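Annotated sample (chain length 343).
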Amino acid sequence: MKKVVIEVTKTRAGGIRETFGATIYAEEEKERSVRFTLYIPDDMLDALIYQTDRSLPKPARPLWTGLIPGYDTQDSDDDRITLIEVSTPDFVISPFVEKVRQRFRETRTRSDTPIEKILAETENYTEFDRNRFILAAIAGVVALIGLFLNNIGIIIGAMLLSPLLGPIYALAVHVAVGDVKTSLRCIEMAGLMVLMLAGIAALATFLLSCVIPLSITPEILARQDPNAVYILMALLLGFATMTALSRGIPEGIAGVAIAAALLPPAVVTGISLVIAPAGAAKAAVLTLQNVVGLAAGSILGAVFLHIGPRDLFSQGLSRRFIRQTFWFLMVLIAFLVIVSFLV
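Output written by the structure step:
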């Protein structure tokens, strides 16, 4: 159950009453605005925001708990008054609320996660986060130890620790909404993280080789064998991960799939640069195959789940950006398939 507070100017209050009259729990009239309080089932939230968006004249936009870039710098008094605030009460006891819940259950067709919530979840992954990169570096070192010990348990432990999911997930979401600038930042973050893993693995391998003899284990050899099948695997993992996250499955569980595809090959690339240069190119190709496959699968998942902007103009722009991105990824996948036969 969600508590939704909608505050608008008095001139716009009529549209809210008309749209949500059957679900309005309380109405409070202020000097310049009217505040409506609603209690609704969680699954009803996306439809509510969409209807409110249509009922408010542009440029007023629905707010996700007051979160809009540059909102505080807007000059319009009407825009400052317009607000949607969403919270989750511990429990609600009310015959009226129970009737709303029952009516929704009878008419519900499917469950959606509001795009505002999805975008808010990806915000932290679009910028450099030192702590997240430190965690990725630690995961890379743990994976390196597991690879040299040929210990699959340690490698899996590193996957659980690795935060590689975020940039891929954020990329798919922002491609789906047509945000080119943020999509490029997500690519930058993902690229930096993979390059950092390879660099740290190379440095750690060099330092270890000065102290103890190092050998190529079966776990390392397995990541020096690029194959087109891995692209298909990455596509499926990306699609499944996007579906899982959009349905509320915890990131720690869904992220293991991304880490499984990216962490060991990236670390093996760094290892190979130091003690097996002949296999470095193969490990790098495998890493790229997985990165591209995961990105393509995640974007396909976002499209399948109808993740995207609300207004029609932005939807047209996002579809064009998705098509351009998709064709670019297909060309890149074809190139990597060819390269996998040559290295």
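Annotation: The chain has 14 helices and four strands.
Annotation: The chain has two domains: 2-112, 117-342.
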